[in-house]
Amino acid sequence: MANNNQNGKLSREEAGRLGGEATAKNHDKEFYQEIGEKGGEATSKNHGKDFYQEIGEKGGEATSKNHGKDFYQEIGRKGGEARGNSDQSDSDGKMSREEAGRKGGEARARQRKNN
């Protein structure tokens, strides 16, 4: 059902929603991937390292506000499983789970101390 304003015209929101639905019907996943890639390339040309660090920090802060200890334990567990069962640094230069956990804990302790 269309939301008409006092003049019998579609509201801006309704027109946008209907346009989006029509576009979705006419295009496939590859279309959206292509325009997403183009947007990402344009953004990377217009913004430097500091921009990405800032939005990463904001995302991390938002995530920490929305998730508790259990969330971080679960993603840590999944990361450990994905990493494998090796407790030693691999020949490819990757650090062990123990070392990564120790470094992460130290970084978190420094963060808490500074805040």
From TrEMBL:
Top-level lineage group: Bacteria
Feature: compositional bias, Basic and acidic residues: 24-40, 47-60, 67-81, 91-109
Region (Disordered): 1-115
Pfam families: KGG
Family matches, as PANTHER family: CONIDIATION-SPECIFIC PROTEIN 10 (EUROFUNG) (PTHR36569:SF5), PTHR36569
Name recorded for this polypeptide: General stress protein
